Amino acid sequence: MTTRLLLVSDTHIPGRARGLPDALLRAADAADLVIHAGDWVAASVLDDLEQHGEVLGVSGNNDGPDLRERLPEVARRDIEGVRFAVVHETGDARRREARMDDAHPDADVLVFGHSHIPWNTTTPGGLRLLNPGSPTDRRRQPHHTMMTVVVDSGALREVELVVL
Q1: Could you write out the DSSP letters of every residue in 111-122?
Q2: What is the pLDDT of residues 68-91, one digit of tens each?
Q3: Which of 164, 162, 110, 159 has its CA nearest to residue 137?
Q4: Are 58 and 46 spatial neighbours (Cβ–Cβ below 8 Å)?
Q5: How far apart are CA 134 and CA 8, in angstroms?
Q6: Alpha-carbon span 113 to 103, nearest angstrom
Q7: Which residue numbers delimit the Calcineurin-like phosphoesterase domain (predicted)?
Q8: pLDDT in tens, 54-72
């Protein structure tokens, strides 16, 4: 069976946008699961996203007690035989691969956020690191972004950074 994922992070609503972009909501409707790597800021963003499908999310450093009560700091899910972990922060980019190999030895894919910088690498230990950037707060990046992923038969078949 094929599972279509939408990866997002760092929506920072209402600080950086009034709402989620229409293109993101259409992608959420088309996805089997939305993974959000934290910094929602308003719980209404989680509520809105849940209206478009199943959401697996974590809290971020800018999320208040209302979101921290609803969301863990680390989420894990087996999807089509691929072990996913989701966190908000991974620390400095230097030595990220080695740190994450040590921190998440039981995962095949780690989805993270915080930096607003899209990231798609594989560590020496084989852990796939994915950061979708931000669909609403690009900071110093040229574009607002999100990612789509297709998981099938125990493997990532497609990983695409989507520019909004």
Answers
A1: E--SS---EEEE
A2: 999 999 999 999 999 999 999 999
A3: 164
A4: no
A5: 7
A6: 16
A7: 4-153
A8: 999 999 999 999 999 999 9
pTM for this predicted structure: 0.97
Task: Quote the tokens at residue 91.
Answer: 């620390």
Taking CB atoms within 8 Å and a gap of at least 24, the contacts of 44-52 are 44/13, 45/11, 45/13, 45/20, 46/70, 46/71, 48/19, 48/20, 49/20, 52/25, 52/28
Q: What is the CATH number of the domain that holds 29?
A: 3.60.21.10
Between strands 128-131 and 145-152, the pairing is unpaired
Residue ranges making up the domain that contains 11? 2-163
Number of domains the chain is built from? 1
Specify the pLDDT at position 1.
Answer: 86
pLDDT, one tens digit per residue, over 98-123 is 999 999 999 999 999 999 999 999 99
Assigned token pair, 48: 């809105």
d(CA 132, CA 135): 8
**Range 142-158 average pLDDT:** 96
| Mean of per-residue pLDDT scores for the chain | 96
